[in-house]
Amino acid sequence: MNIHEYQAKALLKTYGVPISKGVPIMRPEDAEAAANELGGPVWVVKSQIHAGGRGKGKFKEADAGEQGGVRLARSVDEVKTFASQMLGKTLVTKQTGPAGKQVNRLYIEEGSAIDKEFYLSALVDRETGHVAFVVSTEGGMDIEEVAHSTPEKIVTLTVDPVTGVMPHHGRSVAKALKLTGDLAKQAASLVDQLYAAFVGMDMSMLEINPLIVTKDGNLRVLDAKVSFDSNALYRHPDLADLRDLTEEDEKEIEASKYDLAYIALDGTIGCMVNGAGLAMATLDIIKLYGEEPANFLDVGGGASEEKVTAAFKIITADPQVKGILVNIFGGIMKCDVIANGVIAAVKAVGLSVPLVVRLEGTNVEEGKKIIAESGLNVLPADDLDDAAQKIVAAVKGN
């Protein structure tokens, strides 16, 4: 689960992390009061969307002004103007795709006198199973570009979960950022605070870009992006309340109600698969035969008929879908349960596109029999390769 910058900063502040003062607003008429509360003389007006690259982004609407999604204001009137130009408009960045995202919230923040900019993030290193800190002197830039062009400027260090953060971690971060004296002490304290926040709130990613040194010699978090492990949200009901559904795909929201792992994609072939690895292989083979998947959907190993029905309805609700591939390898998941779920869904919503079903594993013969006797116009497949070729051919009208 992702949250907005202003929400992330509010949470980090409870752990002592140094952040600038700011006020979130959702209506243009609240901009003046927010600016007066902060006092100026310089303010930063920031679009709040779940995507990076806001500063370099462009609004689709002509009346949104020519500046990006992060703007520097030097008067209260400018704050008001920017707020009216940005709220309700569609911001397009590298991460939103061409459709962009509507800006429904702004964060008005006091300006900062910047001396240096750094990059600092924490994430779960899947190879070691530890939390890793990634730091670079190249703050304010796309870290992917830094990794590609100057990988030697990125330093990664992991934290053993048994010991937690130790003094050497802070020293290593300070050394990587070439900080000395009091700034080195501040860096060590910041690492302690960020690690406590990361573990305490079950984060999956915490990115600060940039982390700045102010002209008066203090470290400050100027931007913050936070994602949480959705599987751990049951431990943090207060965090779940921060979820902004307007930032999410409606189909993904519906899928989350049934605990389905669903991600919307841009293709034409809807996929329903059990198991993340098999789902990825299914997406790959669809692309191999010249089409694009419309979604990633893993119904899981123990899905019920209700869950399968819900998954099928979500797929068919996507107007981009021109064909559906059901690919089930039954272990814990039983093929007859999948078959009954598919039939129930088709009867409930109808079937206007080609459907290919590949079943293998537990109760496979019962599942195939249920499909065959259903009277539905379903193309059976012997294996994944056969299924992929059949659905691609059906979509292309061959």
TrEMBL record:
Its EC number is 6.2.1.5. Pathway: Carbohydrate metabolism; tricarboxylic acid cycle; succinate from succinyl-CoA (ligase route): step 1/1. One of its GO terms (molecular function) is succinate-CoA ligase (ADP-forming) activity. It comes from the Bacteria. Substrate binds at N274, G331, I332, M333. Binds 1 Mg(2+) ion per subunit. The keyword Magnesium applies. ATP binds at K46, G53, R54, G55, E109, S112, E117. InterPro entries: ATP-grasp, ATP-grasp_succ-CoA_synth-type, ATP_grasp_subdomain_1, Succ-CoA_synthase_bsu_CS, SUCC_ACL_C, Succ_CoA_ligase-like_bsu, Succinyl-CoA_synth-like. SUPFAM superfamilies: Glutathione synthetase ATP-binding domain-like, Succinyl-CoA synthetase domains. It catalyses: GTP + succinate + CoA = succinyl-CoA + GDP + phosphate; succinate + ATP + CoA = succinyl-CoA + ADP + phosphate. The keyword Disulfide bond does not apply. Mg(2+) binds at N209, D223. NCBIfam families: PRK00696.1 (NF001913), sucCoAbeta (TIGR01016). Succinyl-CoA synthetase functions in the citric acid cycle (TCA), coupling the hydrolysis of succinyl-CoA to the synthesis of either ATP or GTP and thus represents the only step of substrate-level phosphorylation in the TCA. The beta subunit provides nucleotide specificity of the enzyme and binds the substrate succinate, while the binding sites for coenzyme A and phosphate are found in the alpha subunit. This is Succinate--CoA ligase [ADP-forming] subunit beta. It comes from Chelatococcus sambhunathii.
